[in-house]
Write a structure and sequence with these properties.
Elements: H1 34-44, H2 49-53, E1 55-63, E2 66-72, E3 81-82, H3 88-101, H4 128-132, H5 151-157, H6 164-169, H7 185-199, H8 203-215, E4 224-225, E5 239-242, H9 243-254, E6 258-259, E7 262-263, H10 269-273, E8 286-287, E9 292-293, E10 301-305, E11 309-314, E12 319-326, H11 331-345
Antiparallel strand pairs: 1-2, 1-12, 3-5, 4-5, 6-7, 8-9, 9-10, 10-11, 11-12
Helix pairs in contact: 3-7
Length: 349
Amino acid sequence: MTTTPLIPLPRHPENLAWPTETWPEAFESTEFDRARAQQAIDFAFSQQALEKMGETHAFLAVHKGSLVLERYADGGDQTTTFPSWSKAKSITHALVGLLVRDGKLETDARADAPEWQGSEDPRRDITLDQLLRMSSGLKFTEDYVDSGVSDVIEMLFGAGSDDVAAHAANFPLAHEPDTVWNYSSGTSNIVARCAQRALGKSGEAFERWMFDNLFTPIGMRSPQPKFDAAGTFIGSSFCYATARDFARFGLLYMRDGMWDGARLLPEGWVDYARTPTKTPPDEPMGYGAHWWLGIAGPDSFSANGYEGQFTVCVPSLDLIMVRHGKSEAGEKGDAVRAWLADIADCFRG
């Protein structure tokens, strides 16, 4: 994808409450093409959309800090929790940011992986940054549906499921670090374990830390992070939450890691997330540090999950979109991404 200079992240409107308790609502706002957006939303929730883009279970949009669009499929509402799938990777990025803020982690330092500590082990120089940018060079096959080898399925649901980070860390190098981009849920779980080792907590203690330092300060009350038998947060894939809480997480990043006057993520951490990798993926979207780039305009960045889970931030529009559903990869997945871009266009003058 073509990269552009990072545009400034928008400040929160001065007289608008932060959604720590409840979301400000502006469902009558006329600052965008509401009729066009509503038509697109109506289609996504219709029977006619199933063949083109699969099922849509929830959609909301936050514009300039207020909820302006929100809809759920039958049986769902504001209290329904949805699977994150790989949107959890962006939450893992935030957890690392908290530890960078507190001086417990450095992105340019070697990743703390016990499996790599042999003096002749070529993996021992892999950095946390290379893991976050999916450029570590580790062998890993990320395949969800085909009949071939799938390292991610084996890690999450097979032989590696009791200790996902150890399973991933035992893969060999396939390339020199920083030479090839390879999307890998395995690296995200190595990162999650690095965070836990830096903090000295795992399992329930780490979960309490997640709530005390990330979720509760921004009003996220619904998250359900999942851990393996070794006590590692499965930071690649598993953190359920409501659509409104995923929007709160998006707002934290839209506001440069600030929340109601307090800095939660270190200065520059969000810019780090949305700065393209030196070894970009060979596809229309780009990649930063555990965030995707360019889904809804060149300045947009997003947390993307399997089967069409999205939290999309568009700084130039001060727009956050959250979509949950069940859309197969391929044509249906492409249609969902195009649909999100169309919704974003409704907010462009």
